[in-house]
Amino acid sequence: MAILVILVVALFMLNLILGSVHIPLKDVFQILIGQDEGNTIWQNIISRSRLPQALVAMGAGMGLGIAGLLMQTLFRNPLAGPSVLGISSGASLGVGFVILVAGQFFGLTFSSLGMLGDLSLLLAALAGSLGILMIILFVSRKIGGTLAVLIIGVMIGYLSNALVGIMKFYSLEEDVHTYVIWGLGSFSRLSLTRAQLFSVLIAIPSIACLFLSKWLNLLSLGDNYAQNLGLKVNRARVLVILMSGILTALVTAFCGPIVFIGMAVPHIAKLVSRTSNHFILILNAGVIGAATALLCSVIARLPGLDSALPINSVTAFIGAPVVISVIWNRRKEHFAE
User: Fold this and answer.
1) CATH architecture of the domain with residue range 2-297
2) What are phi and psi of 33, to 5 degrees?
3) Are 85 and 132 in contact (CB under 8 A)?
4) pLDDT-based confidence at residue 90 (cuts at 50, 70, 90)
5) HEC states along 58-93?
6) For 308, which DSSP code?
7) Distances (CA, A) of 200 to 52, 165, 212, 294
8) H-type helices in 220-310, by residue range?
């Protein structure tokens, strides 16, 4: 854990140092503590761009890592991720209504709305994701069964994507372009104040997930075994879905849909932890998720690049090999048996 925390701090500082403009580490420290008043340009770069981006990346990685671990434990599926219940698709649907429908009904483009557009985008994504989360929770309480909840979540995701596709077909070209850019994901959309708010909002449910560790330990053994040990499986399932859904909704609302981090990080956490105790796994998943997102943020804007790469393009290159290796190793173990 100490090594992982040091890694996160090192990657956080790299996010402040590296970019199209190189800022020495000594000057970064002086700017952070408010003692460097000489170079206004460097101060603006740190306070308005790099520091918010690093805070958002760290919070998003932590939230997605923990949410992915919860989903993989609940469904006992190594390929489950935070978006498996369609919550990210719900956020995309909410954003689609704001971006794609605004041009048709009000005769304006989303880019002309300015700050009002950014706020409406955030609220729409949060409303869409939380709306889908409420539907999933209702289904979980009424129907029960992990597999049924998983299938319904996937189907809701398909329906949301279908509605977005219809809206794209009838929308203005400029609005469709704006929606596609949002769907690529980004850690650089927030100001410093909003980035700090996002970090606090992510930290609260992330810490709360630690109190679910004993329930997760029992759920990982199977529903019947957990019920025989006194666990109220339906209530535990609802709370696990709720916490994972809140984390996914917050990240998607503030950053857009971020792929692969939530699916790959839990496997790295299990490999590093070498334990089935979910208290340790949640801690490691949060720290490794933060380190992974910070690493992706650094790679996306390496020195020499004129502009930052889409963050999902980078996360796919890091997360996909992890998922492929998990499938490959499981296949080899199956043949070995």
Assistant:
1) Orthogonal Bundle (1.10)
2) -90, 0
3) yes
4) confident
5) HHHHHHHHHHHHHHHHHHCCCCCCHHHHCHHHHHHH
6) P
7) 13, 34, 20, 17
8) 223-228, 233-255, 261-273, 278-300
